[in-house]
Amino acid sequence: MKASDLMVQCLEEEGIEYIFGVPGEENADFMMSLEASDQIRFILTRHEQGAAFMAEVYGRLTGNPAGCLGTLGPGATNLITGVADSNMDRAPMLVLTGQGASTRLHKESHQVMQVVDMFEPVTKWATTVWHPENIPEIIRKAVRLARTEKPGAVHIELPEDIAKLWAPKEPLKVKKFRRPVPDEKIINLAFERIKKAKCPVIIAGNGCIRRRASKQLRLLCEKTGIGVISTFMAKGCVDMREDYSLYTIGLGSKDIPACAVDAADLVITLGYDMVEYHPKLWNPGADKDVLHIDFLPAEIDENYDPSVEIVGDLAHALWMLNERIDAHGPLDFDLSSQQAVRRDMTAELEAHKDDTGEGPIRPQKALWDARQVLNDEDILLSDVGAHKMWIARHWIAHEPNTCLIPNGFCSMGFALPGALAASLVYPERKILAICGDGGFMMNVQEMETAARLGTKLTVMVWEDGGYGLIGWKQDNEFGRHTDLAFSNPDWLQLAQAFGWNGHLCTRAEDLQSTLREATEEDGPSLVVIPIDYRENVKLTKKLGEMACPI
């Protein structure tokens, strides 16, 4: 067989189900080989960035990589934003690019650039296939690296002349091994630390949304009552209806859940990535006693200096702690400060649930109504913008991986293509993407992809006619903002042009019924609402004046 055939067979052996992308001349042989596969489905997208976001969301939801594909030069550069987002948000992904013939890569040549060098900073590994017999090893290594904690993106470049060569090899068999687990002694030391604490609190990060880790975390909280504050990307690691959920941390200003950290004498961080929320924001004095439990050692930072560090499989580490809790019996803590945090934050989340006033719709009301429409297992995807801050603060998630927020690289344009991938993974669930009018238009072309595939998803656009988050931040720092306004299309005509269902909802009292109708329609649906971002200033003022109820 030729090299491109072997590459597809190796991907099949790894269980790859989807490759999203835009082909070009230099990966034509690979595309011909892929067309013959009865296992891997190729999804033709309208832009490579959309393809990368689709592969990212597939990886986040399944824990297995999908492929995103582009040709050399501009095809590769178009992929890079979504690839960087996936890598920084710990989603497994395979990045597949074509390249010119190896005979012309040493000199100035049409569309040729150092693609591997470009991808190295935003992937776990990037390489070129220089010999067809190396393909089985490269694919096996790439998939294993992409899946290994912490997951991320891996890039493989296949020059067009190498793709045509004879490849007398077979795919390597896939072997999966258990991750390393912590030592008994360090677990004992951590348990002694927890026993001696008077008011411990947990900060749960991205690593906690793995199903096994979420299960063990919930058991630990049920046994001890210790409160859990999640980062944006960890929402759903515990059911936020539970009394031990202290909601979410991560805003630039101090919010109510941060009061639980202030009152704690031990902060237990689980699967925590400081790329989401820097410790100087919750440990400014660098005086907190920190217990670090994660797949990898702690990042070196002056505000994050754990007294105990447990490195290994997170779910297994929590299971080991749960064993010791069962053997010891009930632990005695004073968690009254955490109860006050939950009480006050719950009141915040419910404050605007019954709004029916005229004019733009408050963010709090929009999210409350969306939560009533979606079931526990349904999926919300947030784009990046002012709405992301409201979703992070107000969305009540019940299950892991049901609220997807890009919060490491934070790229706009994520939610629409991401929702398409989510609908492929879970066609039986309701999929709702929330976008600002700025972020939505960045990958608007993928509306055609969604319509062509007949995917059932809903996108709610919060319209304010400008880059609201930038304006919010400039106002906070300078008391004013630069010109950030833009115009928008006729949304209903846009929906009709792309073959979508379209809804324009201008009254808060109609929003819940409109969303319910949209999520039950066949095919993709667009819901547009005018959003009341005067609430941004009110929230900033409230947080600036906040005093902890402790």
Structure description:
Belongs to the TPP enzyme family. Residues 1-113 form the Thiamine pyrophosphate enzyme N-terminal TPP-binding domain. It comes from Halioxenophilus aromaticivorans. By secondary structure, the protein is of the alpha/beta class. It has three domains: 3-163, Thiamin diphosphate (ThDP)-binding fold, Pyr/PP domains (Rossmann fold), CATH 3.40.50; 184-343, TPP-binding domain (Rossmann fold), CATH 3.40.50.1220; 351-544, Thiamin diphosphate (ThDP)-binding fold, Pyr/PP domains (Rossmann fold, 3-Layer(aba) Sandwich), CATH 3.40.50. It contains 21 helices and 18 strands. The strands form three sheets. A six-stranded parallel sheet has the order 2-1-3-4-6-5, with helices on both faces. The protein starts with a helix and ends in a 6-residue tail after the last helix. The model has no long low-confidence stretch (mean pLDDT 93).
Q: Can you tag this structure with a few keywords?
A:
550 residues, alpha/beta, Rossmann fold, 3 domains, six-stranded parallel sheet, 40% helix, globular
Describe the protein's topology:
Elements: H1 3-13, E1 18-21, H2 28-35, E2 41-44, H3 48-62, E3 66-70, H4 74-88, E4 93-99, H5 115-119, E5 125-128, H6 135-147, E6 153-159, H7 160-163, H8 184-196, E7 200-204, H9 211-224, E8 227-230, E9 245-248, H10 258-263, E10 266-270, E11 290-294, E12 308-311, H11 314-328, H12 336-350, H13 363-373, E13 379-382, H14 386-394, E14 403-404, H15 415-425, E15 431-436, H16 437-442, H17 446-453, E16 458-463, H18 468-478, H19 491-497, E17 501-504, H20 508-520, E18 525-530, H21 534-544
Parallel strand pairs: 1-2, 1-3, 3-4, 4-6, 5-6, 7-8, 7-10, 8-9, 10-11, 11-12, 13-14, 13-15, 15-16, 16-18, 17-18
Helix pairs in contact: 1-2, 1-6, 3-4, 3-15, 8-11, 9-11, 13-14, 13-20
